[in-house]
Amino acid sequence: xxxxxxxxxxxxxxxxxxxxxxxxxxxxxxxxxxxxxxxxxxxxxxxxxxxxxxxxxxxxxxxxxxxxxxxxxxxxxxxxxxxxxxxxxxxxxxxxxxxxxxxxxxxxxxxxxxxxxxxxxxxxxxxxxxxxxxxxxxxxxxxxxxxxxxxxxxxxxxxxxxxxxxxxxxxxxxxxxxxxxxxxxxxxxxxxxxxxxxxxxxxxxxxxxxxxxxxxxxxxxxxxxxx
Length: 227
Ligand code: ADE
Prior knowledge:
This protein has about 230 residues and is α/β, with parallel strands linked by helices. Helix content is about 30%, strand content about 20%. It contains eight helices and nine strands. It has helices spanning about 20-25, 65-70, 90-100, 115-120, 125-130, 150-160, 170-175, 210-225; strands spanning about 1-5, 30-35, 50, 60, 80-90, 105-110, 130-140, 195, 195-200. The strands form three sheets. The chain has a five-stranded parallel β-sheet, with helices on one face. A two-stranded antiparallel sheet has the order 3-4. A two-stranded antiparallel sheet has the order 8-9. Strand 8 and strand 9 (about 195-200) form a beta hairpin. Helix 3 (about 90-100) packs across helix 6. The protein starts with a strand and ends with a helix. Adenine (ADE) binds next to strand 5.
């Protein structure tokens, strides 16, 4: 999978070289390229934003600069993901959908967001005929300083679902057995007793059917408590 991220803070993506995602890049399973939006400016101040038409607080990122940055990346079969708190909520099922794609672009907005004409332009029939899809995505009901951290969250959730990225694919199979797509039951490892708290007996029983039943029950209890 090819991933492009466009941002005014390329340094935010340094952690992408670590752990699973770093290894996935070394193995050639993921090719991540980070682009500095400011390199597409042409004034002395490298301006990327201006005041909003209609007034109001904050600044809006300029369509002209975004167009210059995105045009060369907009090849056939591309999913452009625009990070915004007003977007559709990111989920495990959305991660699975994106994991099956060949090319993702993450557009990291700052300030009050990107001039809406950027979204409109790349959603036009011209791009639709090239199988370019535009998605506005939010990672949760809170406002971040920009889309960089949200992009990292999405990239990590998506790339770990690409075949070959996880060292032990068994963990994906186990996750997929759970309707919500993630592990919810409590886990224990050695020692059998820690600070007076024993590991639940059932986990030492070797009875896999009973363990699965117990775990499902625990997952249910936990989900109810954290709702
Ligand atoms: N940019 C600012 N807040 C965000 C959020 N919650 N999700 C995605 N992008 C954002």
